[in-house]
Design a protein that fits this description.
Radius of gyration: 19 Å
Number of helices: 13
Strand order of the largest sheet: 1-2
Helix content: 40-55%
Strand content: under 5%
Length: 393
Amino acid sequence: MKFQSLSPWLLVAVVLCGGAHAQQQLVEVAASKSAAKRDADDPQSKVLTPDEWRRLDASIERALDWLITQQRADGAFPTLERGQPGVTSLCLLAYMAHGFSPGDGKYGQQLDRASEYIIACQQQNGLITRLGPEGPQITTDVEKEVGEATVYNHAISSLTLSEMYGMSQPKRAAQLKLVIEKALVATLEMQRWPKDLPVDAGGWRYITDDGINDSDLSITGWQLMFLRSARNAGFDVPQQPINDAVKYVRRTFNKQSGTFGYVIQPNVRFSRGMAGAGILALAHAGYHHSPEAQSAGRWLLEHGFDNYNGNQNWDRYHYSLFNACQGMYQLGSPYWEKFFPRVVATMLARQNANGSWDAESLERDRPFGNSYTTALSVLALGAPNQFLPVFQR
């Protein structure tokens, strides 16, 4: 059987039905990182030469080998406590994006511990966060920094567990099902919270009050990814919340600048991260070639990533790189071939000898560490892999 011709979900079915031998074959295919990336029928795989792909593969292997050495005994990857389990979830996603899954293969035991840590962080109210409201109801009575991080932790972790759900053995899948269902209730509840401005309807923001805006594109993008992932995995996700979120995303597009804004207000900040987030969100809704997405793609080509770890005032480099790579892959030609080779050249040139990438240069994000930025870099460079269903084109 040629596993290279199968989709990620069909690969899962082979594992569940074919026993240990099939699992070992799948692990070998995943480790080669070639199943989805260099499909002969995928024109987007032609943006690099075979030698450039080999160098990229080797770079990713070094990064994953380094990242696993950073894992703590409890399964978490190191970062600020208020960034958990979001950063651990990004690290787990990075391995899954390259074909590795908890419980199987080279990193199986370590990834299983990471998933257990994430699951253990779920609060009674459904939020998946280390710090935040702990009672039966989601309250806003938390410190500002915690309230900002809580929703990121929840959305990213919920997405990770949802993507993992279809790759899991029945016993773990049953456990994940309960966690994801509670997380969905929390996500949908927060979307329905009253908004001070009508334009913010359909989006998400922090669980603490932060100015007049009650929605922003960054958090909305993650929550929308979770909803789409959960729906793809067979969970009962109503269509209306997704429609409302997509309408909000489209309202963040600014015609004057030609890209998406972080929030809807005068003098809005524009960034590479939000350009990518807007493109990716519309792609999840089926609008791969919308005028807004194409305009934001052109904007990204003019605001590239050649200056490694340059944050352009508040624009986080690695976070923006992740969103931009995933978004530009969804856009396809001619954006992808103009964008990705330059990114690869920059990232390979600036990778540390141990396989990591530097912590974020932006002062307020630097304390989250370089497990965080390395995971984002691996996810960005793995955009062509298509192992994760939520990022499939």
